[in-house]
Design a protein that fits this description.
The protein is 42% helix and 15% strand. It has 484 residues and is α/β, with parallel strands linked by helices. Strand 9, helix 9 and strand 10 form a beta-alpha-beta unit.
Length: 484
């Protein structure tokens, strides 16, 4: 295999003397990449850091390809490092999620990061890697005497779970307790109990590929130099304090809560008027706080039966709605027509008060639109923090992964409400349109929920403003880089 290609300093104007060179090593999936793009954008806007970004090829989804292109277009001084994966036989894991397969392929190619980091010019001062790669990248960085920081793309509560699960399993084994088939309920010191039903589904089987990755990463992350989190102190005070005080794992690395992350691309800064027929243009014609925004993330496919029940619920609620719908895990595979998915006549019946689209949208901008009054969401962490920043109440309907853990923060942090009994991926029960419609009406009319969400939005704005907790934490992190 040809070595990964890095654009030379001469091609990109070189690095200023004395600036730390920070290399980002992201993973796959827009839920993981968006936080990286936003942190890169925030740091690339400064003049005191030199940045390179490892771009893993081929990308899994079209959205990944487009967002990488947008990043380098917006920040031409950021170095692009193309990293081609070694051949990988996916048949070893039949039926596995495409993104989990990508993470495994990355892990199997991770030894190539050593020469890449060592051969970079200017010398790499520090790397920032994704949690999914940390068990491989941290040892490589340590061997090269390079700082290694982890950009954790979920909540602080989830980080505490990731750090504590290996301790939890070791403690059970040492006590002679039976371990398996899954992790079981986890009592995290000074954070609280996370019942098994709220854990990412693969953790119910210790032999799953994801579970092995999760445990390996959990064991290694204690050796990281620090963690960057897309959260803020007022949103998760308990979990952040437990991590920082060494209550979860003694001697845990520094944790910098620097969120909520915002888009920093030039396209966001120079916003053009919305195109006719676009979701933004449609929102412009709706009354203030009147629209229910519905989206379940970029890789969470909902069954056809459940999609029709959601449609029935939105129709029965009587409220205006904007629904970003997807039917497949990978966007390139999504070929279904809306009429076939939602049933004959649905789009005609809701014409004028409902808009359904399968296009990629700028969710951050939509949530900040004055017409949006509620967000029906899978409670992926990017969605939670975007709702928190916008002060929009979130109705959490977890679909899988870390979503139920995130939903606990939705409630405790004042972002919104959580329907704990609604089913998620792998469960057969359908949530009826009648129940969905009733809950949408209830949340849309709940002034107390709206007020709590608005206060959370105010706290989010304070955190990232000059002098706020997230602002100071980012300054402290940059100071640590400069001291390298």
């Amino acid at each position: 295999m040809a070595p990964p290609a890095m654009q030379s300093p001469a091609e990109l104007g070189g690095a200023s003397a004395g600036r730390p060179h920070l290399m980002f090593i992201p993973s796959a999936g827009m839920g993981h990449l968006l936080p990286f793009f936003r942190v890169i954008g925030a740091l690339a806007s400064r003049d005191d850091i030199d940045i390179s970004v490892v771009t893993v090829l081929p990308t899994v989804s079209a959205a990944e390809t487009e967002h990488f292109a947008g990043l380098f277009e917006a920040y031409p001084h950021v170095r692009r490092v193309d990293f081609h994966l070694l051949p990988f036989d996916a048949s070893e894991f039949p039926g596995a999620d495409p993104f989990l397969l990508r993470w495994e392929a990355l892990r199997r190619s991770a030894h190539l990061f050593g020469p890449l980091i060592a051969g970079a010019s200017p010398r790499v001062s520090a790397v920032v890697t994704d949690i999914t790669l940390s068990s491989h990248v941290i040892p490589i960085a340590k061997e090269l005497s390079v700082q290694c920081h982890v950009l954790f793309v979920s909540c602080a509560t989830m980080l505490s779970l990731c750090a504590y699960v290996p301790v939890h399993l070791d403690s059970k084994a040492a006590a002679g307790e039976e371990v398996g088939p899954g992790v079981g309920d986890v009592e995290i010191p000074d954070v609280g109990r996370i019942p098994e039903r709220c854990l990412p589904q693969p953790l119910l089987d210790l032999n799953k590929l994801f579970t092995k990755q999760f445990i390996d990463n959990g064991r290694e992350i204690v050796h990281a130099d620090s963690f960057l989190l897309n959260t803020f102190d007022a949103l998760e005070p308990v979990a952040l304090a437990a991590l920082r005080d060494g209550k979860v794992v003694p001697g845990f690395p520094p944790v910098y809560a620097i969120g909520p992350f915002n888009a920093h691309t030039s396209t966001a800064a120079a916003k053009q008027p919305p195109a006719a027929g676009s979701p933004e243009a449609w929102l412009d014609g709706q009354p203030e706080k009147s629209v229910v925004y519905v989206a379940f993330g970029n890789r969470n496919a909902v069954s056809r039966e459940q999609l029709r029940e959601i449609g029935a619920g939105l129709e029965a609620s009587g409220h205006r709605f904007l629904w970003v719908l997807k039917t497949t895990t990978v966007d390139r595979d999504d070929k279904a027509e809306l009429e076939d998915v939602l049933g004959e006549g649905f789009l005609e019946r809701v014409r004028g008060r409902g808009l359904v689209t399968k296009a990629w949208v700028d969710q951050e901008a939509l949530l900040k639109h004055q017409s949006v009054g509620m967000f029906l969401s899978h409670s992926g962490w990017n969605s939670v923090t975007e709702a928190a920043a916008a002060g929009v109440p979130l109705l959490a309907w977890p679909r899988g992964g870390d979503h139920r853990v995130n939903a606990t923060v939705v409630v405790s942090g004042g972002v919104g409400v959580w329907m704990e009994h609604w089913s998620w991926d792998g469960e057969d029960e359908l949530v009826t349109g009648e129940e969905i419609g009733d809950k949408v009406k209830e949340v849309m009319s709940d002034e107390a929920v709206r007020a709590r969400a608005a206060r959370t939005g105010e706290e989010a704005a304070k955190a990232v403003a000059e002098g706020g907790t997230s602002y100071r934490n980012l300054q402290e992190f940059v100071g640590k880089l400069k001291a390298t």
